[in-house]
Amino acid sequence: MQTTPISQLGEFGLINHLTENFEAKNKSVIKGVGDDCAVIEKDDEKYFLVSTDILAEGIHFDLVYTPLKHLGYKAVVVNLSDVYAMNGKPLYITVSMALSSKYTVEAISEIYEGMKVACEKYRVDLIGGDTTSSLKGLFLSITIIGEVAKEKVVYRNGAKPKDLICVSGDLGAAFMGLQLLEREKQVFIAHPGASTDLENQKFLLQRQLKPEARKDIVDIFAEKNIVPTSMIDVSDGLSSELHHLCKQSNCGAIIYEDKIPIQSDTYEMAVKMNIDPVTAMMNGGEDYELLFTISQNDYDKIKDEPEIRVIGYTTEFANVVELITKGNNKVKIDAAGWKAFNN
Amino acid sequence: MQTTPISQLGEFGLINHLTENFEAKNKSVIKGVGDDCAVIEKDDEKYFLVSTDILAEGIHFDLVYTPLKHLGYKAVVVNLSDVYAMNGKPLYITVSMALSSKYTVEAISEIYEGMKVACEKYRVDLIGGDTTSSLKGLFLSITIIGEVAKEKVVYRNGAKPKDLICVSGDLGAAFMGLQLLEREKQVFIAHPGASTDLENQKFLLQRQLKPEARKDIVDIFAEKNIVPTSMIDVSDGLSSELHHLCKQSNCGAIIYEDKIPIQSDTYEMAVKMNIDPVTAMMNGGEDYELLFTISQNDYDKIKDEPEIRVIGYTTEFANVVELITKGNNKVKIDAAGWKAFNN
């Protein structure tokens, strides 16, 4: 029997491989596997959006530095982000959890407390769940259901050449927050008595430990009557997400280093830790910003929005993603998204 | 800080404790946590049903004797069963999986192959998923979405005193299949060279390893125009499920030992293994039969159905569940459902 290690396919290759033989049985499935959410028929006016994520201890989070309440909050937020990435409104979540006997009721309650805060802030209902024991570690899987007006749903595959590529907020902060936490963890392991120094970097730490989802951007789209031509959320890093948009839209992209939004805290910490700030912006994941394309005709509607930046444009050259550096060099960018299975 | 072990609350107590402070935010939530499925508004005529289950290696399944393809099949079936228990029609599933690096692509493909067979048989679409690595073990969480006509939805809380208590198929077989597999596992551990003896018990093994969900019973309800007054699926054993129905319907139950359906293979294996057949029927889980109550007026509609048995009736004595034995003794039955956290 053949034995192929999972790392050979990578996360996306694996999901494609596993789901390619499933044929659609219900014509109410508008879009199955392959976007931020599945899209199913709700009624004459709306679609339901469905997405699921699983977080595993030691892979997605490290309880040495992740407060349980923040973990619960973040687990909800990463799912909300998938619904916003379809231009939708999140409505309900279900929660599956497996945890070893080392967790007490009080510990699990902390996780639920964090989920509750997120549910209240984003007006989402917890409608179901299942909790079981595990032999080792904590696993948290959330399924989210949202809705979107049929004429407003945004997929990854709608970008046309010469659309404007935009990104919300700023990039690389969650990645630098993680570097900082990992550095202090190493110090702590080497010198258990030493006091850790998180340098008062509240912004970076919060972006890693308690990120937010960009409901405000979807609200701007509604208010300004914008329907992006394509959209995805930045969970695996800008390079990776841009490649997803280009591949599914059958186009290319040119983006400008000097236009990619980065906070000064992020930039300075990268320099201090000898990390190229471009790497933090391009490859750093977990920002949960929205990456989207709009028609040039919509430029006036977003040009004064402080939370939206145009970082480049799409081209007709399928899957060619290029970065114009500050020094005006053109660099080809690979899809170097975070590959969970290589960790 | 207080530290309460999870086992002190049990699985149901834990879920109640964790979710009691969540307030409903969307009025489209008809029923949240607390039944086989959550019920949400779909359109003027229908509700969506949503349920989620998580299976953990070493807790819910043992890969020593569980073929991966069967595991995938069963993982889907247990979710289908929750939708049928609301008198609904399953439509879509999402799959979350976490697995350690010991699993190859071929192994995961086997699991998906089993899920695919179940999806095809029950006409369900896989619409999304997430796959990640785990430090140890395999975790499989499935969320199912189904639908039901508003006037046909059946909850756990609708039984009235003097309704008839019915059960589909037969009980205890999955439990005896498990005992057989566990016995042979112990033989195999003690004497690695010895050949195992599963006694050609295909029926018992299949009920444990590759159970089916009772779509046929829901079809009978539709055909005969029956809407049960309450319903639940038998996943944790008849005693436990009867207590759930009684508690939520605020009634009691009297059932008759000689009316509880048990297959001769199940009965004989129980006797052979020195297990009281009543224990197998009452406490053995994973049968995925449907336990439901109907109005006495509907008796004629089901009395000739070979797959439906009337096993007793409901009473006005809240939470009092009694078994009339073959010797005509009345025995009070506790809610001795399978408690995952005590294992």
Task: Kindly describe this structure.
The structure is a homodimer of 343-residue chains. Chain A folds into 2 domains: 147 residues, PurM-like, N-terminal domain (60s Ribosomal Protein L30, Chain: A); 179 residues, Phosphoribosyl-aminoimidazole Synthetase, Chain A, domain 2 (Alpha-Beta Complex). Chain A is 33% helix and 25% strand. In chain A, the strands form 2 sheets. Chain A has a 7-stranded mixed β-sheet with strand order 8-10-7-11-9-12-13, with helices on both faces. In chain A, strands 1-2-3-6-4-5 form a 6-stranded mixed β-sheet, with helices on one face. The longest helix of chain A has 18 residues. The first copy, chain A, is globular. The interface between A and B is large, with 83 and 83 residues.
Question: What labels describe this entry?
Answer:
2 domains; 6-stranded mixed sheet; disordered C terminus; 7-stranded mixed sheet; 343 residues; homodimer; Phosphoribosyl-aminoimidazole Synthetase, Chain A, domain 2; 60s Ribosomal Protein L30, Chain: A; globular; alpha+beta
